Fold:
Amino acid sequence: MGNYDDLLTEEVKDYAKEIGAALVGIAGADILNESLDEYFRPEDVLPGCKSLVVMSLHIPDGALEIMRRGKAAYSYNLFGYAYLNRELDYIIYRMSCFLEERGYATTPIPARGTAYGAPKKGYGMISFRHTAVAAGLASFGLSGIALTKEFGSRQRFAAVPTTAPLHPAEKLIDQAEVCDGCLECISHCPAGALSLNPPHECRMGDKVFRFARSYYDKCIHASRGLSTKAWPGAAFNPKIDVPYSENPSAGKLYDQLWRERDEGIRLSENSEATYGATLCGRCMAFCSAGHEAMKRRLRDDQKETGHTDNLVIQNDGSLKPLQPEPKALGKKLLGLS
Ligand code: B12
Ligand code: SF4
Ligand code: SF4
Structure:
């Protein structure tokens, strides 16, 4: 057992709640140093890093539910992405200052994007999903998204690496505790960007997690409004299909983003980068764990109201209830069969 500052750990957790974090936990730097690739480990971004303060913000259920119904992606794009990232940046900044004022070093990492110059495409300075799992807040769904008992898939994460000796979580959550293997995430991906054949394997602590490999370029193509397959039947589905190219150069992607897309999408965006038309997000939106967590949190007298009918948009524009069932492959990967 390490030599931890339990009092500071409690102060950090209280402060995280005070500045608005929905969930907060502490990840030990050691298990992440072993689990993540060189250059993207806590010790690479902060020499002497001992722990990471991991925080999340909940994406309001309504923002995803209205998107599942095919009516609007606008609420999700703002309150699940653009604005939420600002709120995350705010809590990262505050937590970083809180720790530095107490004499500890930190590295504040922005909530979105990857660092220019990093040696691997599609890698953040630190993977927040991995930090959330290491902090005992979440486990990997088969989608690769970090799922919590409280919100399922419906949250974004941030982590502040620090030299402070905070007390880390002692128990990691098993995948089967949060994911039922229904595979709705994979079957609703419009870009074929998620593959379980074979799954990606991640070792952390004494556990092995299995989840879909994600193809960066395919996801970007759909999630940046370049594909008419993104949200078939939905009012906000892009109306122009920009041809997909393998490994597009950054310049080509930039051109596509700003010139070749549906004009309506460009006009629906604004200077605050709301990505007005679509961010896809279907693997998050259709995740059963998210919908079930929403139902659990509703008051008893609200269980039959709002979005609990589970209606989702069909390709022909009609609405039908989603009826997810665990699948044989899903159960096998989760060790349930
Ligand atoms: C780059 C990035 C992406 C990339 C790559 C994602 C990925 N799986 O790593 C793309 C564009 C695909 C993407 C998509 C999405 N993202 Co994103 N993304 C990030 C970012 C900036 C970095 C992630 C990272 O470091 N990955 C690298 C390593 C560590 O991942 P890995 O698990 O070891 O390995 C993966 C890849 O290497 C790949 N892979 C490995 N081997 C192989 C082999 C082959 C052949 C191939 C093809 C791929 C492959 O698949 C592995 C499993 O996913 C983070 C922010 C952050 N700093 O963490 C947000 C983040 C992961 N994204 C997020 C979200 C919400 C999304 C989307 C839902 C989009 C949206 N609407 O917002 C989708 C979800 C896709 C999915 N199911 O995984 C959230 C997740 C929140 C949560 N609850 O878990 C994060 C944490 C942002 C945040 N601040 O909250 N994202
Ligand atoms: S965001 Fe869309 S395209 Fe990207 S992995 Fe999820 S479902 Fe697939
Ligand atoms: S959609 Fe189903 S299989 Fe996919 S992550 Fe969510 S609960 Fe797991």
The CA atoms of residues 84 and 265 lie 21 Å apart. The mean pLDDT is 94.
